[in-house]
Amino acid sequence: MQKFFRFIVLAGVLLLASCNKDEITTVVAGDGENTENYDIDTTADRTVTVAFSTSGDAVVGGAGNGITATVDGNDVTITNTGSQKVFYSLSGSTNDGFLKIYSGRKQSIELNGVSITNTRGAAINVQGLPDTPNKGKRVDLILNGSSTLADGATYSLTPSDEDEKAALFSEGQIVVSGSGSLTVSASGKSGIATDDWLCINDGTITVNSSSKTFVSNGDTTKVSGVKAKDAFIISGGALNITCSGIGAKGISGDSIATFAGGTVNITVTGSNFGSSGGGWPGGGGHGGGNNDNSVAAKGIKFDGNIEIVGGKITVVASNHEGIESKGTLTVAGGEVYSQSSDDAINSAGDMTISGGYVCAYSTGNDGIDANGNIYLQGGVVYAIGKTSPEMAIDANTEGGKKLYIQGGTIIALGNLESGAQLSQACYQASS
Fold it and tell me: Is the pTM of this model over 0.85?
């Protein structure tokens, strides 16, 4: 279809308007799995109930057939060595307890207005069976009513041969659904973490993280509000994250991320650690400079590609990037607002915006920055960067890359990357 473009630039502002909207192909995210794998599955062979108590011991019902439960006050450990898939229903309240599950089978965990605080580690910790391959088993997490989870400042109960990375932790995949809400308070490690992929389909999740990254024996422990080792997917519901910890991130992962729906609100106020901007409070030999253990406080950061095809994302990061992909970054739909003191939106590879609404506002660096090419093909884009030498939109021309403006509506406050390739001439004014 033929396109007609109008270009207007005022006060260093580039406005490019297209008379038609490009077709958008929604790309299903994940690691090659069918989307059915992200649907909640509440089918089970057995229901086990766990009722926590502030005045006595927790009560466990429904164990048997390879499912054993150990109760010490409100410390509940359940081991499933059988072949049954279990539906765990949690209720009650405790200020000093936890649920720990060892399981070789998938399981569902329903939070029925439960409140669990563990001053010595994770509130809920799902482990695979020891000494077995593929230890991590999937958890379908169902939110029913208003539930709260909180960890402790130190994880003193963690065995040396086990991971325990968050107030809510699973070695296997986590799929979240339900009409209820979950509030997670993390002061020791991350709020929610998995050693596999994490999918949010529904429900309201609020994570308040004051956890601090720290150095022990030369290793940096990196914390986030929500962390997935593999893919992160959100298709609905609401995810609200506030991080004040040093070097903490709102959402992070070692693989890819797809934002396909729902609402995400992230505020990161924590300072950077090491060479990323400042030393450890109180000294102790962990100052700035070139430090392999340095950690930056960012809103959203993934080591793989980030794809945004729907939903509404709002990120405010005080001391580093708002949204960062170590791969490519694609926006084909949805609404994105990212504000930061560093690059508002950054990608190590190519960046493509073909639809949706994007506002990238940096108070100290580039609005939109890519180490690869930048392709602006559609949608509405506001890019606000700090004055020269920083830019509103910055492609890696030093590496032979370019900014390609091919469609959409673009308003740029600040400079464009030199050598930008426009599909038509634009207008510019300096007042």
Answer: yes
